[in-house]
Description:
7-stranded antiparallel sheet, Lipocalin, 20 strands, single chain, mainly beta, 2 helices, 9-stranded antiparallel sheet
Amino acid sequence: MTRVRLPALTLLAVVGLAPALRAQVRASEPASVSQTVDGTKITIEYSRPRARGRELFGKVVYWGEVWTPGANMATTIDVSKDVTLNGTAVPKGKYSVWIVVRQSGDWTFVLDPRASLFHVAHPDSTAQQIRFPIRPGEVPFTESLTWSFQNLRVDGVTLAMDWGKVRTSVDLAVTPSYNLKVGEEHARPLVGTYDLTWLSQGAKSKTATLVIVYENGRIRGEWTPVPYPEWEGFYLIAAASGEYFFPAFTINGQLADLERSIAFYFTMEGGKAVAVRMQDGSGAGMATGKRKG
């Protein structure tokens, strides 16, 4: 039998390819995105297929297919606490993510507790899955499949998946760590108008009028003038100890930020508050005020 001898340089070239092959770029690179909302961490892990000039939905992804919005291993979502997705309860844990795509009408968003599935698993419907309808929308073209967090708020966020000209959006709401509701017996003694003097630097004015009202089971505060643009108004949330309140600031009437490093202490006399003191997380005074009238 005739043996072929390769030149030494050729052998070196072939052997030298091995590390390069191991390090080659994958067609669908792995990615992950995370977001924390009021102490709940949401993490999405996925791979990012590219359009590469192909017609995506109906061709690359078949109509009626149970498709993972990614590639390689199934896309996963991990939530550290119980949440809701489009109003559907989702217990904390890790799930593989699937979408049943259709040529018309709603698609179906599917969470499967079997998190380690390959993208060709196309799991059948089971009692353990969490399923709900979603409506795909149209957006400007996206070459590489992208998951993102949109419209972040204090109580939730929108999960968005873009590929080609298609976007799917799912509203995620977290279990709040606070309670805006306050019993009337605790709220009524605080209601009134206070003459406030600012001790901290940066406020627009050294003095302000603080008005505390009780409505719809909540304690709401407003001041004139507004000290900072982002402090338009606020709700007072009772601390767990019951000794003080911290503010949840609003912008245009919408809850925007919980500021646990600011405390409102009220001085009580004769069953009602006669004074208020604001202090920061270090205990330094921010403002003092006395009830008006």
